[in-house]
Design goal:
Belongs to the binding-protein-dependent transport system permease family. It is a multi-pass membrane protein. This is Carbohydrate ABC transporter permease. About 70% of the residues lie in helices and about 5% in strands. By secondary structure, it is mostly helical. A two-stranded antiparallel sheet has the order 1-2. α5 runs antiparallel to α12, α6 crosses α9 and α14 runs antiparallel to α15. The longest helix has about 35 residues. The termini are far apart.
């Protein structure tokens, strides 16, 4: 009879090799585990929502309520549409809207075309692109007040650099900020120089994403510079162009800093009075916060309607 083997059988080894059964699941289930893992992310998200609600949603709701209220010696009362009637009956109301629309049109002609042209030039260069990008974006890094005061010095009728240049070539000097016909154009030029750097860099990034094969194919077809821009560049960057067009319209309709610092706000014969400056006057000069909120509400409705129309048209084109 053979001696029993001391080597454990395969069944015994398999039984001892099996892992112990899992314990009971932790309390709270998968949601609690996920929440614990993402506690930091949830905390940052909640903080961002609270900040956005406090600094954005609450002022909008408060403005809507103020547009239908009147504050008299600390007592708040509902006045319905009286604030809107006050705004509509103000002679400066329609002038402010005309000036704002004029500034928007001029700012789009210069502020929309000039950055795009600058981006086209930089994109065609082979050397020095980084230096030129910095040079173009430099005005954006300047404090707005400092940039506006620089242009106020340039426009000075006595010792301003622009009049010195005009006089050196035999041209008559101009009253840039004192002439009602030139004051708005002067404000637009200053605003374009101050703000075109960001748009130019965005255009440049979009241009660098256009495939070079399209330009080569256009050259083979005999297309010149302007035909390549019209048939290749603009269609390939249409989304960026339309988005920046919307953003520039919204920004220019809310212009305040440039006319306020260059011409004192109203300008000669009210030529630079804008809607936002009129809101400032109602609130801080006339202490009529209800009228200021009503005018701000009108501007909000106009820009919201324009944005909604833009989104609808853009969606229809994409479909």
């Amino acid at each position: 009879m053979s001696a029993p083997s001391l080597t454990p059988s395969k069944t015994a080894r398999a039984r001892h090799a099996q892992p112990p059964p899992d314990g009971p699941p932790p309390p709270g289930g998968s949601f609690a585990r996920s929440l614990k893992r993402n506690l930091t992310a949830h905390g940052l998200l909640i903080g961002a929502v609270l900040c956005f609600a406090f600094f954005s949603w609450y002022p909008m709701v408060r403005e809507f309520l103020l547009a239908f209220q009147k504050t008299d010696q600390g007592e708040v009362s509902w006045v319905g549409l009286d604030n809107l009637r006050t705004v509509f009956n103000d002679p400066a109301f329609w002038q402010a809207w005309r000036n704002t629309l004029l500034f928007t049109v001029l700012a789009l002609v210069l502020g929309f075309a000039v950055p795009f042209a600058v981006a086209l030039v930089i994109n065609e260069l082979r050397h020095g692109k980084g230096y030129l990008r910095l040079l173009v974006y430099l005005p954006v890094m300047l404090p707005p007040v400092a940039a506006v005061l620089l242009f106020k010095y340039l426009y000075d009728p006595g010792y301003g650099l622009l009049n010195e240049l005009l006089g050196s070539v035999g041209l008559p000097e101009q009253q840039w900020l004192q002439d009602p016909d030139l004051s708005m154009l002067s404000v637009v030029i200053a605003s374009t120089w101050m703000n075109m750097g960001g748009a130019a860099l965005i255009y440049l990034a979009a241009l660098q994403g256009v495939p070079g094969e399209l330009y080569e194919a256009a050259e083979l077809d005999g297309a010149g510079l302007f035909r390549k821009i019209w048939h290749v560049t603009i269609p390939q960057t249409r989304l960026i162009l339309s988005l920046l067009l919307l953003m520039q319209i919204i920004a220019t309709m809310q212009v305040f800093v440039e006319p306020f610092l260059l011409t004192g706000g109203a300008g000669p014969e009210g030529s630079t009075t804008t809607v936002v400056y009129l809101i400032y006057q109602y609130a801080f000069n006339f202490n009529n916060y209800g009228a200021a909120a009503a005018l701000g509400l009108l501007l909000l409705v106009l820009l919201a309607g324009f944005s909604a129309a833009y989104v609808k048209l853009n969606r229809a084109e994409n479909e």
